[in-house]
Amino acid sequence: MDVTLPPLLTAMVDRGNGLLWGSVLIYLLIGAGLYFTVMTRAIQIRYFGHMFKLLRGSRQANGGISSFQALSTSLAARVGTGNLAGVAVAIYFGGPGAIFWMWMTAMVGMATSFVESTLAQAYKTDHGDNTFRGGPARYIERGLGLRWLAVLFSICLIIAFGLAFNSVQANSIAQAMEQAFAIPTWAMGLVLMAIVAPIIFGGLKSIAKVAELVVPLMALLYLILALVVVALNISDLPAAIMTIVQSAFGIEQAAGGAVGYAISQAIMNGIQRGLFSNEAGMGSAPNAAATASTRPDHPAAQGFIQMLGVFLDTLVICTATAAIIIMAGPELLAGEENNGIQLTQMALSSHVGDWGGMFIAIAILLFAFTSVIANYSYGESNIEYLAGRRAPLAVMVYRVAVLGMIMVGSVASLGAIWNFADLSMGMMAIINLVAILLLSPIAFALFKDYDIQLKAGKEPVFDPNQFPKLANKVDPNAWPTKK
User: Which parts of the chain span the membrane according to its record (predicted)?
Assistant: First the structure.
């Protein structure tokens, strides 16, 4: 079964995606990341070690959602099929040099992630059950006073992450299980619904607990396998790194006169796939960041933690996939059909044998499954924002809709739905980027306040009364004034 859109709507969606993802968003995302990097004096480099220091105490939550659980939830959404198939697509179309530009995208994206996650924490609201809610919708309304824009953002997020992307992730799981283990797609759809239902009906705390357990385990297993592949091919590692760098700047293609085209393809594919993978600036991860009870008790603390998510997603996990593919040799890139997950499967099989393809199928299952529940959580937060007092009923309807989309995604071809979701995500990204650029002085002030207290040997504590632009806009139940 193929889910399609009317021809006119399809043409409009394709044209919108071409404009957004072909130019506007690339310049806006990279430009914003560079601006935040300069204004914080390269916070992602200067405070690199501090991120890991905060991680050690990030599991304390006093009955709420901990910083580590919020990080795991955002990683669950970030680390998905893009880390397996997306890297392969970037290398296939952009050459090994695309990986270099993925790295650069992640580096500036870390600063963007700090800004949007810090703002999400500052404007978070008390949910009444020892947890919090927040994200772009809240800081757009509270910080900018633009309720209509916040509503538009929430609608775009619910369409893209809450519904469409969950169908696509379910489709990836079903197809991988059918190919590797001959499990019918409809049967896999029913299994997924049965597994996902109790988790999402348990609410955001349930999702955070599952993410806390599954995400570190799946990432660790995948990284161990990648390290084994590198160890088996350690003599080829310097050549692989050199290939990435040379390809990034068209050095290998210079002799053939195609240097300009090669560089443009490497840059475009690397940046696009990097942005899709780490989601920095998209406005998705702040929804998870806002739920955390931070330690220290300061908005910037979760900003540092969420920076780590971008690093782990792109600079660690995507690099692991790139190493597996590049070390398998250039001959794998010759086949026209090997431009996605098949390339990753064949590369791994060339290193470890036929079971490599089965391992990738299981990795897809875990990566995509955790993305489903994390994407759901983003949607729930925004459903609650839109519904207000009617939130319990609206959330119940949303849960049923998500389960239905999982089943549809398992048995249908969703190319048109994927394109529509890309357009929705592009729109929410533009809204979020404009908002965080306008609100960035507040994020910079919060960073300065945190830094001053830290350098004075104190544990940073947030006092809203010290920030005139925040004092009347912060939920007092979420951030009680400290004396």
Answer: 20-43, 75-94, 144-168, 180-201, 213-234, 304-328, 355-376, 397-421, 427-447
- Counting beta carbons within 10 angstroms of the beta carbon of residue 182, is it exposed (0 to 12), middle (13 to 18) or buried (19 or more)? exposed
Is residue 257 within 8 Å of residue 88, measured between CB atoms? no
Is residue 418 a contact partner of residue 164, using CB atoms and an 8 Å limit? yes
Do 273 and 87 form a contact (C-beta atoms < 8 A)? Answer: yes
Cα distance between residue 38 and residue 179, in whole Å: 47
* Rounded-to-integer distance, Cα 420 and Cα 123, Å: 30
Task: Output the pTM of the full model.
Answer: 0.90
Alpha-carbon radius of gyration of the chain: 22
Please enumerate in sequence order all residues whose Cβ is within 8 A of that of 415, keeping only pairs 6 or more positions apart, or say none: 2
Omega prior to 441 cis, within 30 of 0: no
Containing 123, the helix (H) or strand (E) segment is none
Q: What is the largest CA-CA distance in the chain?
A: 68
pLDDT one-digit tens code per residue, 168-189: 888 878 877 887 788 888 898 8
Helix (H) or strand (E) holding 269: helix 259-278
> For 271-328, what is each residue's pLDDT tens digit?
777 777 788 888 989 999 998 888 888 999 999 999 999 999 888 888 888 888 888 7
Q: Give strand pairing partners of 133.
A: 125
| Residue 37 CB-half CA count within 13 A | 16
Task: Decide the pairing of beta strands 292-293 and 65-66.
Answer: parallel
Tell me if 283 sits within 8 A of 135, measured CB to CB: yes
CB 162 within 8 A of CB 375: yes
Select from 375, 367, 423, 430 the least CA-distant residue to 398. Answer: 375
Q: How many residues would you count in the chain?
A: 483
